[in-house]
Amino acid sequence: MKALIVQHDHVSPTGPVGRRLVHHGFMVDEFLVVPEENFLTPNTAVTFPSGEEYDLVVTLGAPWGAWDDACIGNWLLPEVEWIGSLVRAGKPVLGICFGGQLVARALGGSVGPAPHAEIGWTAIFSDRPELVSNGPWFQFHYDRWTVPPGAVEIARNPAASQAFLINKTLAVQFHPEIVATGLQGWLDWGGGAKVSELGLDADIMVAHTVSEGPAAEARTNGLVDAYLRDVAGLI
């Protein structure tokens, strides 16, 4: 089996999501959308690969808004259309944070700035805890989606919808792929200033992520296993 993981920036490792796919025998290809030299100017030319040769497509987060056509420019609408075509065709897609927002937008939902950012380890309320547990899960987002027509929301918290299912696709607002080194990269490449603006302590956030690591990886393993088995039908 083959999986494609779309990394929108150079500081978002695939973490335990990638490791779990390899554990299940997937050959994993990683596709970087915006290279490091374009991080501050993400409006670059991108040609997305065909999804036909892959059994699974995973789309990760991004520091830009899935609604922000002006900032992202060239590749945002093409990716929205690409993701929508995969989901409608019944291709298994796991959309994470920005990736989940792309799914919502592609299928007729909406994405926009949220009244309040969610950053840090957060509990959610799940209707399907055997698939998406109540967490805690790591959050780092300023936007939120409305669930698209035909999708079923399966988790939420007071701040935002947290997960929905449609066809063989699962979209989650949180970051099951998070590792402490990835978080440090986000902080170093602009996220630290945003964390400070909210009055949060970045050092404590990283230390918490290190401490949470083994339990978080176990939760992610459970999510990936249940998704592949019960939604995607791949194991």
Brief synopsis:
The chain is an alpha/beta fold and 235 residues long. The chain has helices at 15-23, 69-72, 76-88, 98-106, 180-197, 202-231; strands at residues 2-7, 27-32, 56-59, 93-96, 110-122, 125-126, 137-146, 152-156, 161-166, 169-172.
Contiguous low-pLDDT stretches (5 residues minimum) are none
CATH architecture annotation name: 3-Layer(aba) Sandwich
Report helical residue fraction. Answer: 25-40%
Sketch the major β-sheet.
8 strands, mixed
| DSSP strand tally | 10
Give the class from helix and strand content and strand pairing.
alpha/beta
Q: Could you say which overall geometry the principal axes of the C-alpha atoms support?
A: globular
Order of helices and strands: EHEEHHEHEEEEEEHH
CATH classification class: Alpha Beta
Radius of gyration: 16 Å
- Give, in spatial order, the strands making up the sheet with the most strands: 2-1-3-4-10-9-8-6
Notes on the protein architecture:
- This protein is 35% helix and 26% strand.
- By secondary structure, the protein is α/β, with parallel strands linked by helices.
- It has a single domain (2-231), classed as Class I glutamine amidotransferase (GATase) domain (Rossmann fold, 3-Layer(aba) Sandwich).
- The chain has an eight-stranded mixed β-sheet, sandwiched between helices.
- α1 packs parallel to α6 (202-231), α3 crosses α4 and α5 (180-197) crosses α6 (202-231).
- The longest helix is centred in the C-terminal third of the chain and has 30 residues, at 202-231.
- It starts with a strand and ends with a helix.
- 44% of the residues are buried.
- The mean pLDDT is 97.
